[in-house]
Amino acid sequence: MQVSPLFEPERFFSHAPGHWVGVSSDDWDDWRWQQRNRVTTLAGLEARLNLSSAERVGVLLAGSKLALAVTPHYFNLIEPDNENCPIRRQVVPRIEEGYDSPFDMADPCGEDSSMPVPGLVHRYPDRVLFLVTDRCASYCRYCTRSRVVSGVGEQELHTDFEEAFRYLEKNTQIRDVLLSGGDALLLSDSRLEAILARLRSIRHIEFVRIGTRVPIFLPQRVTPELCAMLRKFHPLWMSVHVNHPRELTIEVRDALGRLADSGIPLGNQSVLLAGVNDDVTTMRKLVHKLLLCRVRPYYLYQCDLIRGSSHLRTSVAKGIEIIEGLRGFTSGYAIPQYVIDAPGGGGKVPVNPSYVVYHDSEKVVIRNFEGRIFEYPEPTTVPVPNHHAAELVAL
Ligand SMILES: *Cc1c(COP(=O)(O)O)cnc(C)c1O
Asked: Is 229 found in the same domain as 203?
């Protein structure tokens, strides 16, 4: 039996040009061609996929919530005849998006109430989130910022750049700036360079990072010119967003390699999604492939309570089970921190399996990954021998 490369998630494949037979390799490798040729309409989906009626209705609903857009590179990873394909569930809208559970929110992490300047979220004492664009290469259906992203939602992003830079200059406790959006890597090299240069001119800003899914959706954007520009602003870190091992194609691996070769430490932020990556086997393949790409799994997010995402959410027990299935069984470097971004705006809270079975002032009882029990004594006051004390008194 011929096994399609789509079904061997542990290996790296190129799926180009896939549906776009006949495209020149110059066009295919050009990120602006990829952007211009994104699949953005029902007809575009129908021409290439066997759509279900749940998806057809989903596309119609999406028009006024979060736009449909998928780059050709990423589109080729979709199984044409399987509506439950883990790639497809991330980017093709479904009818369930029209259902808001009683807990769903437009701004689940309460960002709008923590913006001292439009486009700048200041929640933690020493770091800020800077929203530099409202556009992405493709749109994730569970996007936590869908209220402002893609240009069709209920709000618009109006980042005040000059005000934001002045706020950063004034607030000397801010030592870490995270560029996000939208996706900062969709800006032109010169626009991004101007933002980075301005940030680097502020003495107290030590650490700059970019949160981006462009290397996954649009690996062609990671040009040698972009890398040469970015490396002027070290220490510059990057968090990418990979949810399923199939997303790590040859093109993505090479793009991540170019970033790593430019000295950019790479982390990954995954979102735990029902029917995408909510099992230990898929997660283990994902984290191992990430290490092969020199990307350190950073966070595993419980899916935010964003409107219309309940069909993609899992139980918290499932997240804990996945972390338990990794810890001890594989490299510590491969294990992300599982977090819930507290609804309403409390920030990221770590959620861990409990390895402490019992704890009092004398001892802690712990279990290891195999379930074996161990005891560690707490330090006690060291008794001073009597003759020693006598000598001290004599002195
Ligand atoms: C996630 C986030 C950060 C960065 O948090 P780290 O735990 O340092 O990665 C900063 N500000 C906001 C508002 C965030 O949501």
From this structure: yes
Per-residue confidence (pLDDT) for residue 242, from 0 to 100:
98
What are the pLDDT digits (tens) for 353-362?
Answer: 999 999 999 9
Per the domain annotation, does 14 fall within a domain? yes
My answer on whether 135 and 215 are in the same domain is: yes
Shared domain for 149 and 127, answered yes or no, is yes
- 126 catalytic, yes or no? no
Active site residue 304: yes
- Based on the fold, state whether residues 361 and 346 are members of the same structural domain: no
Average pLDDT over residues 227-252: 98
> Do 162 and 22 reside in the same domain of the chain?
no
Whole-angstrom distance, CA of residue 153 vs CA of residue 151: 6
Task: Give 111 Cα–ligand 1 centroid separation in angstroms.
Answer: 11
For 382, the domain range is: 356-395
**Considering only CA atoms, which residue is closest to atom 1 of ligand 1?**
348
Active site residue 143: yes
213 falls within a domain:
yes
Q: Take residue 172 and report the two structure tokens written for it.
A: 């000397």
| Across 103-118, average pLDDT | 96
Q: Please tell me the total count of domains within the chain.
A: 3
Residue with the two structure tokens 């290996």: 11
CA of 62 to the centre of ligand 1 (A): 28
Q: Whose CA is nearest to atom 8 of ligand 1?
A: 127
Ligand 1 centroid from CA 129, angstroms: 7
Residues 240-274: pLDDT tens digits? 999 999 999 999 999 999 999 999 999 999 999 99
* Per-residue b or e along 237-258, where b marks 16 or more CB atoms closer than 10 Å to that residue's CB: bbbbbbbbbbbbbebbbebbeb
Catalytic residue among 136, 142, 147, 285: 136
Domain assignment of residue 177, yes or no? yes
Domain shared by 53 and 194, yes or no: no
175 in ligand 1 pocket by Cβ < 6 Å? Answer: no
pLDDT of residue 153: 87
Q: To 10 degrees, the CA torsion angle through 94, 65, 34, 57?
A: 30
Q: Measure the CA–CA gap between 208 and 175, rounded to whole angstroms.
A: 8
